[in-house]
Amino acid sequence: MSTEVRVPTLGESVTEATVATWFKKPGDNVAVDEMLCELETDKVTVEVPSPVAGKLAEIVAAEGDTVGVDALLAVMGDANAAGPEEVKEKPATSEPKATDTVDVMVPTLGESVTEATVSTWFKKVGDTVVQDEMLCELETDKVSVEVPAPTAGTIVEILAEDGATVNAGGKLAVISGSGVAPAAKADAPAAEAPAKGGKDVEDAPSAKKLMAENALSRDAVTGTGRDGRVMKEDVQKALSAASAPAPAATAPTPRAPVPASDAAREERVKMTRLRQTIARRLKEAQNSAAMLTTYNEVDMGAIMDLRNEYKTVFEKKHGVKLGFMSFFVKACCHALSEVPDVNAEIDGTDVVYKNYVHMGVAVGTPSGLVVPVVRDADQMSFAGIEKKIAELGLRARDGKLSMAEMQGGSFTISNGGVYGSLMSSPILNPPQSGILGMHKIQERPMVVGGQIVARPMMYLALSYDHRIVDGKGAVTFLVRVKEALEDPRRLLMDL
């Protein structure tokens, strides 16, 4: 029984593509969803997976051919069918059958995430594993993903070592049920896959044409395709960089020479993908927003008294401790309803006002700062908020947060007080227009009723985008938060 492999939908207004690379040849056995070939349009590169498990019987569209949407690319046959170049009589062999090995593939990484870095292998070649046992951990821009063993057996090959970058759907390793590594094909070259950036990598046809038209050297282009192959957009970037004057202000400052005695005591460690993303987003916030911070202080006495009075019965009824965060979330939701600009965002020349509050709560993890989102926090009870924050915090520390749980926030709270911070200016989490910084509770002398008394005080800091939030709105927001925290009854009465 044969199955046709056709060109998938290429995107809005895109009607044709060029067959850039075939990863398989007629006669190769392939697993379901294993990548067969790569198509290139004028905008994106599209990978075509196998719709079924079987043998590639025929390639209809060769590399360099132009094909339309739904055009026939290849034909898949039964895995047991003889390929076009197979000999009819095969000598007896003790080699394990193809079905005896199982590929370990990169799992789905999340919406818009196409690649990850192999962070840690928990197993090595030769190790025996049971089904669902953790093999390795992948790291994306935002989350860590654990890869379990799809079957019990022995790891006979690891294709992506620690530190390697892998694409979604790529192959990580091979597990053999018999524990015997499959023998290499006799006619296979010693190095079937050239090293990344090597001269044997076949560049995309459209890229080669564009380089020829512009007399651009292959060495002047950095390939971002599979195995370092040059894509059309890589050539376009190189041409743009060559024509644009390099601004002196953005040139990196050269590192001063380090004495040999100091160099021996230094350690250079590559930034994790998460840390790179944090650095990039924080810098983007500073570059794109007109960021300003306003400060106030709040007497935490009323909140602390209320917690002490009800914490036991609260935990007994709801099964979660009553913390400070639920009070701050509630106070911010209350203030955002009065100053909606702080809960809005700029989109081009439009201001998008949110008629909901998706509250981001910054959480420090061993890998860096992440911001899980409590959705519709304005509709939740104190107990509901505490339970959700506790759940998200635990998942964040274990690296189990999904992409969806960290997207869509409309406002953020960051609690530097848990680390002892007395005062800071938090940086916006774009495209949000406001972030509240909490700090350490510290007793300070305050004048109350004409008397100097020691009160538990906390500094509050609101950083905001001055392009959309005026100074009056920012100060009003912070005052409303202060009033709600110093007299929690206002939250109940919507005052």
List keywords for this structure.
7-stranded mixed beta sheet; 495 residues; Dihydrolipoamide Transferase; OB fold (Dihydrolipoamide Acetyltransferase, E2P); 4-stranded antiparallel beta sheet; single chain; alpha+beta; 22% helix
Question: Any overview of this molecule?
Answer:
Residues 202-239 form the Peripheral subunit-binding (PSBD) domain. The structure is a single chain. The chain has 4 domains: 1-89, OB fold (Dihydrolipoamide Acetyltransferase, E2P); 101-177, RNA polymerase II/Efflux pump adaptor protein, barrel-sandwich hybrid domain (OB fold (Dihydrolipoamide Acetyltransferase, E2P)); 205-237, Dihydrolipoamide Transferase (Irregular), CATH 4.10.320; 275-493, Chloramphenicol Acetyltransferase (2-Layer Sandwich), CATH 3.30.559. Helix content is 22%, strand content 28%. It contains 9 helices and 27 strands. It has helices spanning 205-213, 232-243, 260-263, 273-288, 301-318, 325-338, 382-397, 471-486, 489-493; strands at 3-6, 16-22, 29-30, 35-40, 45-49, 54-59, 66-68, 72-77, 101-105, 115-121, 128-129, 134-139, 144-148, 153-158, 165-167, 171-176, 291-299, 345-347, 350-352, 359-361, 363-365, 368-370, 373-374, 411-415, 434-438, 442-448, 451-465. Strands 17, 20, 23, 24, 25, 26 and 27 form a 7-stranded mixed sheet that branches. Strands 1-8-6-3 form a 4-stranded antiparallel sheet, with no helix packed on it. A 4-stranded antiparallel sheet has the order 5-4-2-7, with no helix packed on it. The longest helix has 18 residues, at 301-318. It is elongated and about 90 Å long.
